[in-house]
Automatic annotation (TrEMBL):
InterPro entries: MPN, RadC_JAB, UPF0758, UPF0758_CS
A Pfam family reported for this protein in Swiss-Prot or TrEMBL: RadC
Lineage: superkingdom: Bacteria
GO MF assignments: metal ion binding; metallopeptidase activity
Gene3D superfamilies noted in UniProt: Cytidine Deaminase, domain 2 (3.40.140.10)
GO biological process: one example: proteolysis
Organism, scientific name: Rhodanobacter glycinis
Signal peptide: none
Domain MPN: 39-161
CDD domains: MPN_DUF2466 (cd08071)
Protein name listed in UniProt: DNA repair protein RadC
Amino acid sequence: MGITRDVLGHYIVDGPQTESDILEAAEDILRRRLERLGSVGNPRNSADFLRMRLGALKHEEFHVVWLDNRHRILAVEKLFRGTIDGASVHPREVIRSALQHNAAACIFAHNHPSGVAEPSAADRAITKELGDGLQHIGVRILDHIVVSAGECVSMAARGLL
């Protein structure tokens, strides 16, 4: 039982599917679309993918889209998992991952299980702290997207970076 994709790109549903199965298939579709773009010219290009990946979670997760100097996607990585109202983000681990991927830029994303995607003071503080650390190794933060089930808020669009 499951949802499979044939060589022509058609999805085949085999039997009854759970909500989790459908969400996993939707995330796969959006990831493939994002990868087909090849690069992220505008960080909002990744918002649908990130909302699908993070929006329905009952706990916080912190993800990073690592990019090269032409904003081509190197990797999408979950770095931290938290609780219903927070996740501990460790700058040392973010910097280690940036170096591992040889990244030149990144887009941060995390979810708010509360359903309110408004960036908090803690969100602004960790973004600044990460930016200060990444600056030393030449990695730019293009955006930090806060995701809820219903919306994504770009900190770059709000002038918070």
